[in-house]
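Before surveying the methods themselves, let us examine one representative protein, pairing a chain with its fold in token form.
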Amino acid sequence: MIDWTLPLLAGLYGLLIGSFLNVCSLRWPVDESVVRPRSRCPRCETLIVWYDNVPVFSWLILGGRCRACAEPVSPQYPMVEAATGLMWAAMFALHGPTWEALRGAVFLTIVFGISISDARFYIIPDEFSIGGTVIGLGMAFLPGGIDWLPAIIGAALGYGVLWFVAVAGTWIIKKMSPGRLEEAGVDQAMGGGDIKMMMMVGAFLGAWGVAFTIFLGSVLALVTVLLRSIPAALARDEDGEMEMGRLIPFGVFLAGGGAISYVWGDAMVLWYMTAVLGMPV
């Protein structure tokens, strides 16, 4: 029989981490402190007492409303808490009481926070990207996972590849479609947050992880663009031009690619080498 004690404890701890992740992903993008002021209702700004701030359970008990003003509280809060708790439980169920379980849980938490911030604010805070890089390089010295040298190489490669893509993409767009970037309200083809994010991914996953994350993130983004282009082609403005809507936060898709790369990356490499390249195991 499987002993679920450790995953259960890890999941409960993950709920607490998820509660703090909500704060980080909502405050860091707007340069607010995650320490002060204390958690408060976003509508009436009443400070939330501790028994109304228990992850998931308080939201359910209060029916998703603020105790003070009875206004609805976003379901994002319990959803992020629950998802983070499940990630931590899954990592410790998969790896057991090891440093790799902690490393995996921390990495997935960081990319999850990045996806929330980028989806809502189109910003990837340095606390997630640069801070995550420092954490990833530090955890490379722990048993399990990649060693410190592949982590350093991965971080440098992740930053370098995305930097090159951003510079080259900006040059190509400006040559082929002058003014397109200005119309979109940006000055380069890729944000600096995405570049620093891939540095963090490289610190945790190494060079192969960088390659898989960029590939999978690009595929996910491409599928999303294609799906959005269908209704955009049907809904045209008064001049008959297609309305493409908002920009797509690429960090969200890189985060998804990074999570997939961490969980299934080794299996994907093995499949590619054996099934596609025909190399012996």
In short: The chain has two domains: 1-97, 123-281. The first helix runs from residue 5 to 27. The chain has nine helices and no strands. Residues 128 and 172 are 30 Å apart (CA to CA).
